[in-house]
Design goal:
Elements (H helix, E strand, L loop, with lengths): L1 E7 L5 H16 L4 E7 L15 E4 L7 H19 L3 E4 L11 E5 L18 H15 L7 E4 L2 H11 L4 E3 L20 E4 L9 H13 L6 E4 L7 H10 L5 E3 L5 H10 L2 E4 L8 H7 L5 E4 L2 H7 L2 E7 L4 H12 L6 E3 L12 H8 L4
Parallel strand pairs: 1-2, 1-4, 2-3, 4-5, 5-6, 6-7, 8-9, 8-11, 9-10, 11-12, 12-13
Antiparallel strand pairs: 13-14
Helix pairs in contact: 5-10
Length: 365
């Protein structure tokens, strides 16, 4: 029986873990024809999957102890492991192309920090993101041309990979929309209300919302409310934002909230603001879109791709407080002057779901 190895030994949370779980749920459905081996940080992370068929989990609980350890596994230990397992397909789900022997090799790249020009002054907020923004593109480059396929979530990243690494075998595979979240649906929408759910990273651009609110309040416009999922306890970045803008009357700092609560706010508010300067996808955009309410978005390639076909868009330069303020005023004043965005798909090496992706990955030529 042919073997498929799925590797993600550093994946423990967030969107990457969701991708890993979705991948295993699908591959489990076609496991009749393959033996599936999952290389994981801790198999307890996947205990909620209720898999119908047996998947062999191999744990690497010390993989996050250091980058040296991670590189040791990816570039040295996995070589020996692959010789032992003799896989048909080795799929690495966490950016790094390992040094392995396999009939087919693919890597899923979802870290977009190499395309973010992080300023040196911001290093105090997140040293890891700063280092990633400067050096991750070189990590991507190692062994990348050994892959049969490189998988990314958006076309703009595909174009960047083509430019940076001179490769063409890139599959665009957007994340699937699985919204199985139970929440208390609000029947009445709170007038002139805005919401931005995210973890406070410096590129998430929370401060531009606070600056726009500050301008509006100075103009005696205060008949609106903005809900932000920070409270200053998360990190230095959020702490400084709270200290600077805590006196603004029209902002409520919620702190981090559950996914169920996020969906309750989606139901409750009138408009989503998504000012992030960098995203592999931008999940809140997809999630909020299903409520068919206005969304104020960064005027960046990721946002155009994520929102797809939608007629209630308001775009703004994520570095312009004035533009964001003016777009918020359109909601407050009920101007309803929206932009319509159309989804453009390049069907060359494009996978709508896991089924289509694995059809390509497992195709015998």
């Amino acid at each position: 029986m042919k073997k498929i190895v799925i590797s993600g030994i550093n994946i423990i949370d967030g969107g990457a873990l969701s991708v890993y779980k979705d991948c295993l749920k699908y591959i489990n459905e076609i496991a009749n024809n393959y033996k599936i081996i999952a290389l994981v940080h801790n198999k307890k992370l996947f205990s909620d999957l209720n898999l119908s068929k047996e998947i062999e989990f191999i744990e690497f609980e010390d993989s996050k102890s250091s980058w040296f350890k991670r590189c040791y596994y990816e570039y040295f230990y996995f070589k020996r492991l692959s010789k032992k397992l003799k896989p048909y397909l080795w799929l690495s789900l966490h950016d790094i192309t390992p040094n392995v022997e396999s009939e087919k090799l693919a890597v899923y790249c979802h870290n977009s920090t190499p395309f973010y020009d992080m300023k040196f002054k911001d290093i105090k907020y997140d040293k890891k993101v700063f280092l990633f923004s400067k050096f991750y593109k070189y990590l991507y480059k190692i062994n990348i041309k050994k892959n049969n396929y490189v998988i990314v979530q958006q076309n703009w990243i595909k174009e960047e990979f083509k430019r940076m690494y001179g490769i063409k075998n890139i599959i665009v595979a957007p994340p699937e929309n699985n919204y199985s979240v139970k929440f208390e649906e609000k029947k009445e929408i709170e007038n002139n209300s805005f919401f931005y759910p995210s973890f406070p990273r410096v590129f998430k651009n929370f401060e531009i919302i606070c600056q726009a609110v500050e301008l509006l309040e100075k103009e005696n416009i205060n008949n609106f409310k903005v809900y932000l999922t920070i409270d200053g306890s998360e990190n230095l970045y959020s702490k400084e934002i709270i200290e600077k803008y805590k006196n603004l009357k029209c902002i409520e700092f919620l702190g981090l909230i559950s996914r169920e609560k996020v969906f309750e706010y989606y139901s409750r508010v009138e408009c989503l603001i998504f000012p992030s300067k960098l995203e592999t996808w931008g999940l809140p955009i997809s999630e909020f879109k299903q409520f068919n309410k206005p969304i104020i978005l960064s005027e960046l390639p990721y946002a155009y791709e994520t929102i797809g076909d939608f007629d209630k868009c308001l775009f703004f330069n994520p570095n312009s407080v004035e533009e964001l303020k003016n777009q918020m005023l359109k909601i407050i004043n009920k101007e309803n002057k929206f932009s319509e965005n159309k989804k453009e798909i390049n069907r060359e090496l494009y996978a709508e779901n896991w089924e289509e992706l694995f059809e390509v990955l497992l195709e015998e030529k």
